[in-house]
Design goal:
The complex is a heterotrimer of chains A (317), B (539) and C (332). With 317 residues, chain A is of the alpha+beta class. Chain A is built from eight helices and 18 strands. Chain A folds into two domains: 3-223, P-loop containing nucleotide triphosphate hydrolases (Rossmann fold); 230-315, OB fold (Dihydrolipoamide Acetyltransferase, E2P), CATH 2.40.50. The relative contact order of chain A is 0.13. Chain B is an all-alpha fold. Chain B has a domain at 59-298: MetI-like fold. In chain B, strand 1 and strand 2 (306-307) form a beta hairpin. The chains are: A alpha+beta (317), B mainly alpha (539), C alpha/beta (332). At the B-C interface, helix 7, helix 12, helix 17, helix 19 and helix 20 of B face helix 1, strand 2, helix 3 and helix 7 of C.
Chain lengths: 317, 539, 332
Amino acid sequence: MALELDSITVRYGRTTAVSDVSLSVADGEVVALLGPSGCGKSTLLRTVAGLEKPTSGSVRWDATDLAGVPVHRREFGLVFQDGQLFPHRTVAGNVAFGLRMKKVERETRDKRVLSLLELVGLEGYADRRVTQLSGGEQQRVALARALAPSPRLVLLDEPLSALDRALREQLAVDLARLLREAATTALVVTHDHDEAFTLADRVAIMSRGRIVQVGPPAEVWSSPVDVETAKFLGCNKFVPGSFVGLDVERVGLRATALRVDSDGLIEGTVVERVHRRDHVRLLVAIDGEEYEAVGPMAEVGDRVRLEIDLDGVARIG
Amino acid sequence: MGRAVAQARAGLSSRTGWSAAALLPLAFLALFFAWPVLAIVSLGLREGGVLSALADSDTWELVCFTLGQALASTVVAVLAGMPLAFVLARCRIRGLGLVRAAVMVPFVLPTVVVGLAFRTFWPDGGVLPIVLANAFFNVAVVARTVGGLWAHTDRRAEDAARALGASRPRAFLSVVLPALAPAIGSAAAVVFLFCATSFGVVLVLGGSRYRTLETEIYLRTVELFDLSGAAALSLLQFAAVLAVLVLGALARRRRETALALRDREELARRPTGGEWYVVLAAFAVVVALLTPVVGLVTRSLSTRDGWSLAGYVALNTRGDRGTLAVTGVDAAVNSLRTAFDATLVALVVGVFSAVVLVGLRRSGARFAEVLDTALMLPLGVSAVTVGFGYLITMDALPGDFRTSPMLVPLAQALVVTPLIVRMVLPVLRAVDERLRQAAATLGASPARVWREVDLPLVGRSLVAAAGFGYVVALGEFGATSFLARPDAPTLPVVIARLMSRPGELNSQMAYAACVLLMVVTVGCVLLIERLRVPSSGEF
Amino acid sequence: MRRICAVFAALALTGCSAGTSTAPQSREVTLVTHDSFAVKPEVLEEFQKSSGITVKQVASGDAGELTNKLVLTKANPIGDVAFGVDSTFASRALSEGVFAEYASPEASKGAQRYKADDSNRLQAVDVGDVCLNIDPAKLGGVEPKSYDDLVDPKFKDKLVVENPATSSPGLAFLLGTIAKYGENGWQEYWTKLRANGVKVVSGWEEAYNQEFSATKGDRPIVVSYASSPSAEGGKTKAVLDTCYRQVEYAGVLSGAKNSEDAKKVLDFLLGEKFQAQVAEQMYVYPSREGVALPESWAKDAPLPPNPQALPADEVKDNREAWVEQWRKLVQG
């Protein structure tokens, strides 16, 4: 195991930001810390970087305790939400920074800078001032800067959340590809599950300072550990497993769990109709309870039959 | 470096690390400020009679007048300084360097000379000329401190407010002013301290009716040798200054936001529309500042028998019948050298302090505030108190430090250091902490982070602060006159001495020396302007 | 660590450009003076050469400040010999035991005429009387001759004086009026002066350079020194019946590190060569008999023949109260 967090607790005065968290990240693995804002995920990331001191517990790299290793000797790259590029340096100057700290000689440095700019799709931007870049370009430079000195681990703190949605979705795919291609070991903090599932090999769900569940994206998506986690992952209705024909106590339903289908077994009445970007969402009353459902056009008051789509169902526990 | 050492070094928690770094400025303060001041005050306390002095209603009148005139002077200085700060920071117009230099001139003029110049307009002195003269000296503090931050503050927030329909004054009040608040607070605190302890101005323009704590402490210490009375007043001065500093710190506490710092080149532009009124106001302030200056130049050239350069020629002599131990030119050279030493010491202590204060912000906020306040105290304590304190303490240092030539630059550094801290700190605080963290994760050690991130970003402010400090040291009179040796006087000391002698030539020479001091000041400021290289590539 | 080194380097640099530190020489004497001390370089040079003594000067403010500094540091004096304690402050210095006894052989050549007491601890170096100075041109032939004249309506709004609380000539003038009118009469005199429009400023610089009509202002009568007219080329005059005697003393400090050589420096201050140049250098009259004054002095600034004076002890005991009473009377 490359990175190991062992019972980390971080307190500020009386508030406990991170409580007894243990987690490991394997070599070349990308792990996402996913949770609502204020759950302690950023604090945990900063603790790994060495910017916070754990109140108890230890951060280890290849079995070596990092407690005595200051930030600048950890060789962990860090990408902030809003880039934090050095305003007094050019794009190339920013990317070259870590290499200069490592005393990499100029020629090698220049080559590396160019190849990284190419990697993040910013060829020809070397001499631009960073203040002239768009938000997305700035994040790409920040990523290139963090990757340039070939860090042992890259830490990304909400790397895409300052960008608008279209750009965010595009960049998430690019980022995932980049991390894989470079076989980077990475810890990503995000509150966006789409982003987490796009980027990560494994996802750790955090809530109120604790990690409540760790697993591959598909597993976490389909079997959240509790109702709260399921809610965070988009479930808005909780019913007994028997409702969807599963042999579990409770399941959570996402909006896509019920689909209007004339062959469906469940019957209900359309209560409301909402247009979404690429589909219509219905609110359907079934035995007096309201459920969301995906479907073709239907008028309020129509009787419809509904089919269950298991991809939209999460087993709790 | 061995692993054990690396670990031991890093093992220091950041708090103890920064606290240890704070030792240097604290040691400097303790040795050259706290110890002498406490020694002389406690000597006075031991004599008794402090309580009766405190019970005296005269004493409280003194306190009220001191604080009142300081407050009024501060308000005037801030109001006059703001348009100048705007022009210096935001406008691209010709002759700006000259304006910047002209603004500095009043700051270095000896108070006696300025006091006399103001008496030309108000022959009987009074409160108004005291307030105006105090403000006259301190407009530069406001213009430079506020201008320093303003030059780096992102214009877009203001533009955004305007786009949202805010009128220009509204945008200024709701966006610009809050962003500048830390610098305005800093400048106001410094100006207040200067005004609360202003000595020469009150003495000359007080028409012997108006007295302040400072003049009274001087009187009791130096002329009456009433150390207990002086100690009582010193304690009051101390308490008043401390109260103001704490209020200032509380006001600043709420305003420690990270600002988007940008280069001046991107921000300065030709004034448009209503901005010309501000430029006009700034111009009016400059004219007001230069009026007494022009008066001084005129006086240096006019004698009872018409125009003459006799005063200037005399600068190369020891004055009429050997008034001085050295020539005016020697004194000028000595001034430059002493001010250089003082600036160097102040820069080291000041920058060190500022860095520590920023570093302590998160891990030891309370301690940072204490240190911040402590650093400002020397501005608010009477030079006489410090000077007499030196007499009974500095002999304990190796080689009887009381008569050491090093004491002058060190005492000047005591006055200059807080100014440097106040000028650098707002800019340093405006640097986003995460920028430093980004550099650290990229492998930069704390020292390297300072060099690669802080230094380039605050570089201009640092150069400006050094220049400002240098000029302050050049003009420093209180402590210098107390400590300078007769064979190595500075220009202000020489001017005061020439003024205290009869004979027209001496007074001509004094005014000529003032002009020389102004020329040196303008020269320094212009030189510093030159050093501010335009940004390019790697900065 | 590197930063701390830089600090030390900076401090070391300070030392460098501030001049090489003074290595203690066996025959160095530190002469503490008031700010107005001045000596012709060649005269001092010659003394140092002939005696083998290096004189290091330390200036310490005006007479009052100097005295107080000496008192404050008497346990570990800042020098070996001091010059500039004047008759107003002599009692304090003597009662505090600042000076050591030394009967200089040079003192009998005239200095003894102005002695502070009989203990031989202070020797008079010079006399610098404080007198009214007038601008005859502005007064147009109507000149005051005495203290009494000043309250005459003829001289309404003509006089400017210094605040005795902040200025030593101001104090001397006040003491002169006390000596003249007595403990009971001076307050009445000042009440009249006030009614006659006396102007009070805080220091000599303003009074003389700013208010006096002979320089820049419009008041033709000012409190200054008997010697001042010598610098004005006959344009001004001192009123010799309005003078208060001020004597400046020197003495060897008790606890002087080099008291033998300090005595030689004191002899030098009382000696002919030094005395011959005090008029020119410090605008004061030599204490030594038979020393010629510069030519212009004989005409414009003779030594006042019958100045007012008060016993040093009386001044010491009452000074603060007098100044306070004056303040209430004139400024209240």
